[in-house]
Amino acid sequence: MVFEDQALFPGNELYRIHQLLLEEEISLSMLLLGTGLPESCLTDPEVLLSWRQFDIIYRNAFRLSQRKDVGLLIGNCMDLTRWGVLGSAMSSCLDINHALGLANHYRDFVRSPFDFTITPVHEAFWLV
Q1: Is the pTM of this model over 0.85?
Q2: What is the predicted pLDDT for the residue at 8?
């Protein structure tokens, strides 16, 4: 089985996304469309989702939401506590460069498919 299809991620992130989208009256069934997940997964503390299922959920959220900033809103409702000890370590870093370097180093541990590249630009940073 490929990584993208392994059910490894806790469903609490789905709960947060659903709560955010309830403000726009987007139904859970529409949010889950194409994931193969039943609506009961929202209340199951043991549910695990795959990276591919989350990708579909994010795409559904972007497609269904009328807000152009829905991606930022979803990101804002997530926090580093979902990464446990690594999230605590990242929040203790001196700066964003160090925190994302730490995230890159341990990204396999948190099963992240993303590689965070920091590019300094005129006394600021761009996350690429």
Answers
A1: no
A2: 77
